[in-house]
């Protein structure tokens, strides 16, 4: 398990190569989140803030929860902070496992929990000014489908 919180960009190819170096893993699932322009042509960038120490602890807990729920070979989370421009990479979740279903489920779980349980604050910079992004109900709804860890089958 590897967790990185950083301002610099990440190299998906390097992460992929690192995680596929396990002959027992038959699946490697990656998700890369990008800065998108929901302001429909008006996004100049965004600033992602975090609470040092607390954020890393939350990311580790999310990763540990995923490793408890599914038989994972490797799990890596890279999350960027600071000022980012449109279409820049913001987050990477990579999961290897013996079977694709476990790798897909674990990656989706990690993303759902990153969106709802990790202490990040996002400010969008648009042509019409700056504003903090509110939490979305759809993110909470997606995360609510995961049963508490003591009720899982794994």
Question: What does this protein look like?
Answer:
With 154 residues, this protein is of the alpha+beta class. It has 4 helices and 8 strands, in the order βαββαβββαββα. The strands form 2 sheets. A 4-stranded mixed sheet has the order 1-4-6-2, sandwiched between helices. Strands 5-3-7-8 form a 4-stranded antiparallel sheet, with no helix packed on it. A hairpin with a 2-residue loop joins strand 7 (120-126) and strand 8. Helix 2 (54-69) runs antiparallel to helix 3 and helix 3 (100-117) crosses helix 4.
Give a summary of the structure in a few sentences:
With 154 residues, the protein is an alpha+beta fold. The protein has four helices and eight strands; from the N terminus they run E-H-E-E-H-E-E-E-H-E-E-H. The strands form two sheets. It has a four-stranded mixed sheet with strand order 1-4-6-2, sandwiched between helices. A four-stranded antiparallel sheet has the order 5-3-7-8, with no helix packed on it.
Helix content: 25-40%
- Would you tell me the overall average pLDDT? 91
- Helix/strand order, N-terminal first: EHEEHEEEHEEH
Largest sheet: 4 strands, mixed
Strand neighbour order, sheet with most strands: 1-4-6-2
Radius of gyration: 16 Å
Tally of extended strands? 8
Give the helix/strand class: alpha+beta
């Amino acid at each position: 398990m590897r967790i990185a919180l950083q301002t610099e960009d990440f190299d998906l190819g390097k992460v992929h190569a690192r995680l596929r170096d396990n002959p027992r893993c038959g699946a490697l699932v990656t998700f890369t989140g990008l800065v998108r322009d929901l302001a429909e042509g008006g996004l100049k960038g965004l600033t992602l803030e975090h609470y040092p120490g607390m954020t890393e602890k939350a990311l580790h807990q999310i990763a540990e929860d995923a490793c408890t729920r599914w038989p994972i070979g490797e799990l890596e989370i890279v999350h960027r902070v600071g000022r980012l421009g449109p279409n820049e990479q913001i987050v990477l979740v990579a999961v290897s496992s013996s079977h694709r279903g476990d790798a897909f489920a674990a990656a989706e779980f990690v993303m759902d929990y990153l969106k709802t349980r990790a202490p990040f604050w996002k400010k969008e910079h648009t042509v019409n000014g700056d504003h903090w992004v509110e939490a979305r109900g759809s993110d909470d709804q997606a995360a609510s489908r995961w049963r508490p860890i003591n009720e899982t089958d794994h």
